# Entry
Amino acid sequence: RKVILLFLLFLSVAGVRTQGQNITFSHLTTDDGLSQFSVNSLYIDERGIIWIGTREGLNRYNGNDIKVSNLIKTIEQFVQQYSAAITGNKNGKVYLLCTDGVAEFDLTTQRFKTLLQGNVDAIYFNEKLYIGKREEVFVYNEST
# Structure
């Protein structure tokens, strides 16, 4: 009787394990259009776009092709191409930590905006955008 119970337990565990999702993964390289092979940050926005930050630009991957934004030509010439971190508010805004500050990309207008210039150490979004700069933490208020 114990052998039968053990066998049934084994079958139920094996059945649960086989009900998992089939996950596939594709590699993206510079041959696919990635601006550079060294990726610093990833973010998936509310539209399912994968944002990829590299030393040579910001890449947007929609599942089919990659569009590269050269930040130095896009945002008032203050932000260098390097995208160190990417986050967002899941409500139409993507935030970028770059060499010389923090920028915002509006998904609706498709435009970049400078939020803070200078040496910034970190950005983090949890209901609000937090910006770490040396010994200070700033909280970004969109309305002001």
